[in-house]
Amino acid sequence: MKNGKKGTSPKLMTSKRGQRVGVHELKRVWMLPLLLLVPGDALQQLPFEWWPVFNVAGEGYGLLLVPFALGHYQHIQGALPTQAVSHVGKQIMAHGFVLTAIAIASYWLPILSLAVVAIGILGREVIYFSQKTKEESGPFYFSKRNQGVMILGVLPHSPAQKMKLSVGEIVSKVNGTIVHNEAEVYEALQRNRAHCKLEVLDVNGQVRFVQRALYEGDHHELGILFVQDEKKWGTEAV
Fold it and tell me: pTM to 2 decimals?
C-alpha cells in the first residue's frame, strides 16, 4: 500500500479498437523476515548453544529467522496507479487480517489450520482475478483527451519532475499556445528555449500553472512521456 505505487512503469500500447493508449505495470519484489516455529530437538543440531528456546504445552520450540521473497504484479489501465495499487493493497491487508483471526482460532480448533491454507491461496487468487477482470472490462484512463496531452510518465530528476508534474495530468497550453499532441508541445517550447510555462489540468480537473527556466543539459523533451499516436518516421532530419 505504501511503496508499491512508487514502482509502476508506463507503457504505450494499441487497444482492441486500434487506438493508442497508455497503461502502467507494477512488478515488485520485497524481502520480508519470516519467523518459523522450529521444534527444540532440531535446534540442538545448530552450532549455537545460546539459541533461545521456549516451552509450549510441555514442548520446546524456537524461532528461526528466514528471508522470504514476496512478489506482486499488477496491470493498470482504468485508473491512476496510486489509486489502483492502494485499492488492491487494502484488499490484501483485509485478507491478511481474516487469515490471522482464523489462525488464532485454530489454537482451540485445530481443523481451522487447514482452512487458513485454503483461504490464503484461494483468497489471493480471487483478489488477483477480480482486479484483472475489472481492469480489462473498464475504459482506458490514459487515452487521448480533447483538453490537451495527457502525461503517462515522468522521468526522475528531469525538468518535468522538478516542476512537480504528475502522472494523469493534462498539459493544455505551452508558453501560451494551446496544444493537442506531442509535436505541438515541442513546437511551442522552441518559441522560448530559455523558459517553459505550462498550463496544466490536474487529476481533479483544476487548472494550475507551472514554469521553469530551461538550462543547457536539461532533458530535451522535459522528461515527459505523453499518451500519443505511434511515431511514423519519415525522411526528414530529426
Answer: 0.78
